[in-house]
Amino acid sequence: MVMYSSHTHLRLKYLSLGVLVLQTTSLVLTMRYSRTLKEDGPRYLASSAVVSAEVLKILVCTFLVFRENNFSVQAMKQLLKEEVVSKPMETLKLAIPAGIYTLQNNLLYVALSNLDAATYQVTYQLKILTTALFSVSMLGRRLGLYQWLSLLLLMAGVTLVQWPTESGDSEHKVLSTGSQFAGLMAVLMACVSSGFAGVYFEKILKETKQSVWVRNIQLGLFGFVFGFLGMLVYDGQRVRESGMFQGYNTITCTVVVLQALGGLVVAVVIKYADNILKGFATSLSIIMSTLISYFLLEDFNPTRVFFVGAVLVIAATFLYGYESKPASGSTNKTETSVNSAT
């Protein structure tokens, strides 16, 4: 029974990470496309998309809680009352990561509106290092020599994979210095917030045995409140003029679904991987994005630097996993964490 459980755990671990790679790849490509697509009418509001994603996530998590309670409305209401309403202090703890995640999601729209994909993806991988540092400082986690080396290899590999080519210079010229700086600051702030919020949320999850779906409902409710207030503050006039869903189309809806799905996929990854391992999955998605750009979009020419970078990223992934296996006396002790951001 133990062997079966361990085998199932391992299979779900890599399955969830694989789905996360696909989700991250699709989100980056569609989000970038949606922010650069030329349309006749007004462009959709990033703040509105963030709010819509939170609402969708709440609905899906509520359904999952409903299913866990054998589709009993009474049982679900009782559970939510006991875990959310009757424990206000526990619920309020999630206001901090929810607020940070909401800010982070808005920052990513700013980044992808002002930076080309290569610069965005390379810089955003700094969240792996911030997550590692917060894990060490806040959770007392110890990283071995191989793990620190794997982080360095990962950063080197990602940088090489996304190293700007001469064909990308024309796009750089179009972007103004001001917009590039705004995009860069947005990514850097998102990296720090991603690392802190993910580790903070992991710490909360480890302190209680509450259902991860209930936690995500709580997180989503705070996220909705913060996101809605942010939308009114920054885009209130545009919302009053053209409505909250102005500029929505199929691509916009796809971005919203993928963003909501990202939070749910990560909620599953919580049980089977840690924050840093999730970072490696995200890095692999960068390689997929580049390959898709080459074979489908035909706007990227692979070089020797690209292949060297790809090998480094894959090697770093295996190097990190090699260190974590012998160091883990208990699977649950080293493989339960989350980063709910995209």
UniProtKB/TrEMBL annotation:
<feature type="transmembrane region" description="Helical">
    <location>
        <begin position="12"/>
        <end position="33"/>
    </location>
</feature>
<feature type="transmembrane region" description="Helical">
    <location>
        <begin position="277"/>
        <end position="297"/>
    </location>
</feature>
<dbReference type="InterPro" id="IPR007271">
    <property type="entry name" value="Nuc_sug_transpt"/>
</dbReference>
<feature type="transmembrane region" description="Helical">
    <location>
        <begin position="246"/>
        <end position="270"/>
    </location>
</feature>
<feature type="transmembrane region" description="Helical">
    <location>
        <begin position="213"/>
        <end position="234"/>
    </location>
</feature>
<comment type="similarity">
    <text>Belongs to the nucleotide-sugar transporter family. SLC35A subfamily.</text>
</comment>
<feature type="transmembrane region" description="Helical">
    <location>
        <begin position="181"/>
        <end position="201"/>
    </location>
</feature>
<protein>
    <submittedName>
        <fullName>Solute carrier family 35 member A3b</fullName>
    </submittedName>
</protein>
<feature type="transmembrane region" description="Helical">
    <location>
        <begin position="303"/>
        <end position="322"/>
    </location>
</feature>
<keyword id="KW-1133">Transmembrane helix</keyword>
<dbReference type="GO" id="GO:0000139">
    <property type="term" value="C:Golgi membrane"/>
</dbReference>
<dbReference type="Pfam" id="PF04142">
    <property type="entry name" value="Nuc_sug_transp"/>
</dbReference>
<keyword id="KW-0333">Golgi apparatus</keyword>
<feature type="transmembrane region" description="Helical">
    <location>
        <begin position="143"/>
        <end position="161"/>
    </location>
</feature>
<feature type="transmembrane region" description="Helical">
    <location>
        <begin position="45"/>
        <end position="66"/>
    </location>
</feature>
<keyword id="KW-0812">Transmembrane</keyword>
<keyword id="KW-0472">Membrane</keyword>
<dbReference type="GO" id="GO:0015165">
    <property type="term" value="F:pyrimidine nucleotide-sugar transmembrane transporter activity"/>
</dbReference>
<keyword id="KW-0813">Transport</keyword>
<keyword id="KW-0762">Sugar transport</keyword>
<dbReference type="InterPro" id="IPR037185">
    <property type="entry name" value="EmrE-like"/>
</dbReference>
